Amino acid sequence: MLNRRKFRTHILVFLAPSVLIYTAFMIYPLLDSLWLSVTNRTAGAAQSFVGLQNYFTLFMREQWSNPFWNSLRNNALFFLIHMVVQNPVGLFLAALLNMRIRGSWLYRTTIFIPTILSVVIVGFVWKLILNPAWGISRSLLQLIGLGPFDKPWLGLESTALVTLSLISVWQNIGIPMLLFLAALIRIPDELVEAARVDGAGGWKIFWRIQLPLILPALGIVSVLTFVGNFNAFELVYATQGALAGPNFASDILGTFFFRTFFGYQLQPADPFLGATIAGVMLVIILTGVLIYFYGWHRRIQRVRY
Question: How far is CA 61 from the centre of its chain?
Answer without folding.
Answer: 29
